Amino acid sequence: MGSHTPVLLERCLELLAPALAAPGRSGRDAIHVDATLGLGGHAEAVLVGYPRLVLVGLDRDPQALRLAGERLARYADRTRLVHARYDELPGVLDELGYGPVDGVLFDLGVSSMQLDEPARGFAYARDAPLDMRMDQTRGRTAQEVVNTYDAASLARILRGYGEERFARQIASAIVRERARAPITSSARLAELVERAIPAPARRTGGHPAKRTFQALRIEVNGELDALSAGVPAALDRLAVGGRAVVLSYHSLEDRIVKQAMAVRARSSAPVDLPVEPVGSGPRLRLLTKGAELPSEVEVAANPRAASVRLRAAERIDERKRVQVKAMHQPGTRGGARHREDNDRGGGYDDVDRDDDSS
Ligand SMILES: C[S@@+](CC[C@H](N)C(=O)[O-])C[C@H]1O[C@@H](n2cnc3c(N)ncnc32)[C@H](O)[C@@H]1O
Q1: For residue 65, how far is its CA from the centre of ligand 1 (angstroms)?
Q2: Phi then psi dihedrals of residue 247, to 5 deg
Q3: In the predicted model, what is the mean pLDDT of the chain?
Q4: Best exposed site among 102, 265, 284, 317 by fewest CB in 10 Å?
């Protein structure tokens, strides 16, 4: 993930275009939220493409925010960069005085800057203090997790977030090792993980410590909790016609995104009601069938794209759907079928692939 090229940039722009091109459905300039600003790659392309658009950029990492601020300095009059977690988006928008927004982009995971900077402790390949916080101004470090969690909790994290087959063995090795001296460096952790994994298994699936480091990063940053709150909050802030695009790099992330979109893409009315009550129609239209994967060309040009899955949706007016339905489908069967159709639209069943985000 050493590349600085924004992942699936052209596809993201293509999906967002109909929402961002409209010069304000209510006469205002379009507002686009980049919920994971990072180094501002996607954000810059959006600002270049839409000369009147206002960008709200969030990142929990103050260093990323500073670097993105420098990169986007020439657009300062129409950018609002805020140090916040994306689950704080509703409060951020309220404070800025913005209502519904037209575009939202989430590009999850760590940035190349965070991985490339040894002092952040994200990379197993470089020796550094075990930190791994995206926001170094608050929260517990990986060092605290590794040295204080009991073996069962460590094993649960490694298995759940890292899909690590040898979670129990690694957790026991950590507990044994830290009894001798606290584990404070990424190199020492990487080495003990390697030793805890049986030799034949070390030769498959990349670096033996990759899954452990990924799992610790997710735990340290509470990534899945932030996502579970952040994606629904962003979807609910879309204006009618507004669009959201989410790039995930881990099957657990993708599952959260899929569910948040699916639940909004179907009717909220009980299936046996003959007529859908006003306002209970679908609020989203899915723009991707399942999760889109990168092309081989994209992966060859940008290794970080290898594990990406893209999902996108458009906000629709739930009341409009109801009127159409009430006019054309007055009978019991018609109403039920209509909801079934909506259910199918939101409930596609694609396969979650294993991968990692580092
Ligand atoms: C993959 S990078 C984004 C790269 C960006 N799209 C670009 O083109 O440069 C992900 C960024 O999201 C940030 N991030 C991760 N979790 C976050 C959260 N819960 N709230 C806000 N920012 C978060 C990270 O600090 C990181 O800078």
Answers
A1: 9
A2: -105, 115
A3: 87
A4: 317
Q: What CATH number has the domain bearing residue 329?
A: 3.40.50.150
Do 228 and 326 belong together in one domain?
yes
Rg of the chain over all Cα atoms, to the nearest angstrom: 22
111 lines ligand 1 (CB under 6 A): yes
Look at ligand 1, atom 20, and give the residue with the nearest C-alpha. 85
320 lies in which domain range?
Answer: 9-112+223-346
Nearest CA to ligand 1 atom 25: 61
Q: What is the pLDDT of residue 23?
A: 58
Q: Is the CB of 85 under 6 A from ligand 1?
A: yes
Indicate the number of domains in the chain. Answer: 2
- Whether residues 234 and 341 share a domain: the answer is yes
The predicted pLDDT at position 342 comes to 32
Q: Which residue's structure tokens are 């609002």?
A: 80
Domain-located, residue 131: no
CA proximity to 6, closest of 124, 109, 158: 109
User: What distances in angstroms separate CA 287 from CA 31, 87, 101, one per listed residue?
Assistant: 20, 23, 18
Does residue 139 contact residue 61 with C-beta atoms inside 8 Å? no
Amino acid letter, 295:
S
Burial letters 13-41, b for 16+ CB under 10 A, else e: bebbeebbeeeeeeeeebbbbbbbbbbbb
Q: pLDDT of 67-79, one tens digit each? A: 999 999 999 999 9
Q: Which long-range contacts (CB under 8 A, 24 or more apart) does 75-78 make?
A: 75/44, 75/47, 78/29, 78/47, 78/52, 78/53, 78/54
Could you report the per-residue pLDDT of 239-264, keeping only the tens digit for each?
999 999 999 999 999 999 999 999 99
CA of 164 to the centre of ligand 1 (A): 24
Ligand 1 centre from 317 Cα, in Å? 30
Closest of 89, 90, 130, 102 to residue 46, by C-alpha = 102
